[in-house]
Write the C-alpha cells for this entry.
Amino acid sequence: MVGEVVTFGSPLGGVPAAPQRVDGIRVVTRENGRYCDLMPSTLSSYLLPTLADFSLVRRETRSPAGSWRLTADAVAYEEIGGGADLSGLRALVGDVTAGLGSIGLVTQISLRALGGFEAGGPLALTTLGPAARMGAVVPEATIAIAQASPVVEPAPAATEESPAIEPLAADAPVSAIASRITALSGLSDELLAALFKVERETFCRWRTGALTNPRVGNRRRLGLLLALLEELQAGQVIIKDWLLNGAVSDGLTPYELLERGRIDEVAYAAAAIGQPLAGRDSPGWGGGRAAVR
Amino acid sequence: MPYPPAPYLYRTEEPHAGPDRPLSQGDVFVDIPLVGAARLHPKQPGTWVQTKPRTGPNALGLFVTHPCASRSQTTYELAPFVSIAPVVRCPGGWGPPWDGYYALVPLPGLRNGDDYVAKLDEVCSVPSEALIGHRIACLNQDGVEATVDRLAMNSLRFPETPMHYTTEAARLTNELNLWERWSAHYGTEAGFQDWLNEPFGGQPSEDANGDLIPGSAEPTGEARRAVLAWNYEEVSAELDAHLSG
C-alpha cells in the first residue's frame, strides 16, 4: 500500500456554473485527533488554484493512520495502517476532489476517472472557507465537507462616471482579467501575447472568452501582471508609455524586463516611480543574476 | 491589506513542520530560548540584570529576519543568530480583520485552534541552531506577504501595499518550494543555490491551440533566480529534470 498513487485527470477545463471558493482542506486523523491543513499558496487563491498549488503534506503530519502527499496531479497515501485501506483512500480522495471541485478548474479533475468512491474511512476532512476558524479540530465525523463561502460578486462594469478601478473578484474569469490587462496597459494583443509566449490569437481568445483554460503558469502570470497594472493605475502612471519607454534596469524598459521574466524588478521599479531607484538587495540569498551576467 | 484567514503552508502541533524546507522568514518555532529585556535589579539600584531565557512548550517565536540577512551570501547557511518575535496567545477582543495593533502579527489558529500573535516590539536574538527541529508552522505566500506588510506598518506606518510585496513573497515562496524539493532529494540544502544561479532555459511558446511547441524555449540569459516569480512552473520543470537525471 505504501506509495499507492491515484492520478487525477487534467486539471484544465471549464468553470463550473456556480463556483465557490475554498481556502484549503483539513485532514484529521481519528486515532489521535491530529490534523494538518492543505492550503493553496497562490495569490489570494487568484485564478482558481489547482492541486498543484496545494502544499505537500509531509512527515510532520504522519500519524498512526499514515501520511499524505499531494503532488502536481496525484495524491499518494503512505504508510497506511490502523485500519485504513484503499477504499478509505479512495473515499477520501473523492471527497477532497469534490471539495476542490467548487473552486473552478479543479472541477475538471474527474471523479469518474478515479472510479467509484464510497463514504467512510479513517480520516475526517473539511474544506476551509475564507471565514473558517483555523485549528478547530473536526469532531469524530468520518468524512465531513464544510462548504465554502459563496464567491464574491464581480466588480461592477465601468461607466463614464466611474471608471473600473476596483480589483476584480478573486474568481474572475480569464476573459475579465485579460480584458482588464488590455484596458489598463493599452498594449496590443500581439505585445501582450509575447509576454505569455502565446499566439496573438490565443490572447485575443482569452480576452473574448473563447478560450477559458490557459495553462497553470499563464493563469498565474495573468494574475501577477494584472496586479502590477492595477498598482500602476493607482499611481496615475501613463502605463503604456512607462512600459514601453521607461528605462528601469540595465537599459531595458519595463516591457522588455517583463519579456525576460523579471517582473519582480518591474514591480520594484513601479513602487518607486517618480523617485530615484534605491539600490536593492541581491535577489535571494545567493547573489542574484550576476552569476550569468 | 486584508490579512489572510489561512496563512500557513505547514502547521503542526508538534515539531518539526516541513522537515526538508529551509528555515526562513515567517516560520514559527516552539521551545526556543527567548530573552526578554534587561530589568533593574530589585535590590541593587542602578544595576541592570539580564532576564533568564524562557524555554519550554510555551516559548514560541516567529522568524522575522529578512531572507537576505538571515543567510550567508556565499555559503547560504543560516546566520549564527536571527531575530525572533515572541509569540503569545492573542489578546482578547482582537480578531479578524486584524485591524490596528501593528506591533502584533496575527497567527490565527496556530495551536489547538487558538489564535496567537507575534510581538514585534519584543523581538530578540536567538541562535539559529536552537531553531533546528523546532518549527511548528511555515507561512504560505499570502502569509509571507501579509507579514511583510505588517512589518512595514509596524516600523514605518507605511500605508500602502505595493506590488513589490507580492512579487517578493512569490519569489521567496517559490524559491523555498524548490529548495525544499532539492533538500528532500539530496538530503542536504547544499548545491541548490548554485543551481538556481545557472541560466534559465526559457519559457516554451504555445501554438494557437495552446499546445506547447517543442524546442521553442529560448534562453534569455537570465538566471533561474531572476525569473522565479514569473516563470516558476518552468523553473520547477527544470528542477524536475535535474532531479530525475
Q: What stands out?
A: Chain A touches chain B through 67 residues (CB under 8 Å).
